[in-house]
């Protein structure tokens, strides 16, 4: 994020959500897989009036990082594949581009593989402070007065 611009990175393939909805489309109670989730994503940006401040990269996170020539990242929010390797690779891919002062949020820290990856990344993190709030793990270079949706 820089100057109010958010870079959203997601391949939005029909099966990129499959890890979270393993029975989708298999006759279960979940809805069938969306053949093109990017359309719903773009509609939501319009709906909430934020289309102009979001640059959309429709590709896997590590690929976008590998060709990143943009500004340094002050807020990195990791909420991609929830496997150990993917969380580790997402963080390591973006770590060189973190601004001197930054915050990294990991969604679903309470998910076993995510938590394990974050715990293993902590010793090599480019930031000094660590918090867990509302299911998020947070690496930060500065002390934060954190409070997420009313949670302590
Ligand atoms: C738990 S969902 C979160 C989506 C969004 N952050 C939200 O809260 O609505 C996980 C997302 O990770 C995306 N994803 C899967 N593989 C990815 C990758 N290699 N790089 C970036 N995003 C990925 C999926 O397409 C899916 O949209």
Order of helices and strands: EHEHEHEHEE
- Structural category: alpha/beta
Q: What percent of the residues sit in helical stretches (DSSP H or I)?
A: 25-40%
Order of strands, main sheet, comes to 3-4-6-5
- Report the portion of residues in β strands: 15-25%
Uncertain ranges: none
Number of helices: 4
**How many structural domains does the protein architecture include?**
2
Shape: globular
Distance between the first and last residues' Cα? 26 Å
Helix-strand blueprint:
Blueprint: E1 6-9, H1 37-47, E2 54-57, H2 61-66, E3 73-78, H3 84-94, E4 98-106, H4 112-121, E5 129-133, E6 136-140
Parallel strand pairs: 1-2, 3-4
Antiparallel strand pairs: 4-6, 5-6
Helix pairs in contact: 3-4
Outline:
The model has no long low-confidence stretch (mean pLDDT 88). The chain starts with 5 loop residues before the first strand and ends in a 12-residue tail after the last strand.
């Amino acid at each position: 994020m820089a100057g109010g611009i958010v870079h959203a990175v997601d391949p939005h393939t029909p099966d990129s959500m499959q890890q979270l909805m393993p029975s989708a489309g298999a006759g279960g109670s979940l809805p069938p897989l969306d053949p093109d989730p990017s359309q719903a994503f773009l509609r939501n940006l319009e709906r909430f009036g934020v289309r102009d401040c979001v640059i959309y990269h429709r590709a896997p996170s590590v690929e976008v990082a590998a060709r990143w020539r943009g500004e340094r990242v002050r807020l990195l929010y990791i909420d991609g594949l929830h496997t150990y390797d993917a969380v580790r690779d997402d963080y390591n891919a973006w770590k060189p581009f973190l601004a001197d002062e930054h915050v990294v949020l990991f969604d679903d820290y309470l998910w076993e593989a995510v938590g394990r990856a974050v715990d293993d990344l902590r010793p090599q993190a480019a930031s000094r402070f660590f918090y867990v709030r509302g299911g998020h793990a947070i690496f930060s270079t500065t002390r934060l007065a954190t409070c997420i949706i009313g949670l302590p």
